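Troubleshooting: if your tokenizer reports a length mismatch, compare your output against this known-good record of 170 residues.
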Amino acid sequence: MLVANHTSMLDIMLMLYISKNPFVFVGKKELATIPLFGFFYKRVCILVDRKDPKSRIAVYRSVQNRLKQHLSICIFPEGGVPDEEIVLDSFKDGAFRMAIAHNIPVVPMTFYDCKKRFSWSFFSGNPGTLRVKVHNFFNTDLLKSESTSILREEVRNLILHDLKEDKRNA
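Known-good structure output:
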């Protein structure tokens, strides 16, 4: 399960670039309505309607099928964070619940520069390097579903610490 902070449209391309293994995104259904982008998005993602419990259950089955095809799964547990002032928003449970249910490791990544290179504001940012740190895996083989929130917060705190440390050293 690949997870990273999500503050820019660059995050998707950066994840595609940085991951050594083939993977599929799990993403919100609403993005499939964006002209042109939506056409491709719905063909390469597992779509989820977060308000529909049946959709969330269907995602579990789709993830299981993709794992059998030897694909990794990528979820941005933060959702999208359009607010420029938020360093790292709270994480949703889905990625961590699925990692535990399917007994797959969580691979946290910190994306340091995407927000300042190309944030959600359309005419923002500037050219430059995009830095990424791929952290050690979090194994889930001994975890039960009750550990979801602990795993979620450990991963979030790891990424948040990195982002704050990077900001301090800038």
